[in-house]
Sequence to fold (167 residues):
Amino acid sequence: MLVSNILVRFLLGILVTLWLILFPVQSVLAANLDSYVVRYLQVKEPIDLQLNEQGETRKFSVEDLSAGKRLFEDSCLNCHVGGSTIPNPIVSLSLKDLEGATPPRDNVNALVAFLREPMTYDGTEESYWCRQVPESWMSQKEIENLAAFVLRAAQKAPGWGVDTFEN
Ligand code: HEC
Fold:
């Protein structure tokens, strides 16, 4: 009887210790998942996003898109709030405007290429208006997450790139 009592207490102790260790770990993991991404970009499981004009795709997880959203908030939001382009509203981040660029920017690789070397909308010259993102600033993985966030937001986010500043 005494032995089993000690055993039960011992096991309970282990359970409590495990919970104390695992609970903070789980909260940290949960914090990496952005609720905007889950709710408005409708990403709960990894989704396929188009990589290039040939139609190849790659999977991006909720974590990838959440990381992309954080990069966007830190570095792009000033000029592109809600997917608009404050200094040049004609070239917004809406899907329609991304599709209409030369070459089209409605896929991950084209967005990455643009961010590494921003070009004018007709693709003829370098543009000094948008913020250039060199490799020394964002790795390939980071910039792909950022591009994936922009693309998914253009596809799904309500009101993304709709210019509401003029009225
Ligand atoms: C200082 C303001 C500014 C910042 C910061 C900025 N941009 Fe831009 N961005 C612009 C302007 C202006 C244009 C239009 C450029 C042109 O037409 O030459 C543009 C164009 C773009 C386009 C092309 C849109 C289209 O429809 O073809 C994308 C994509 C883009 N920006 C993404 C980003 C991302 C991602 C970031 C953050 C790393 C960023 N921008 C930071 C000003 C900015």
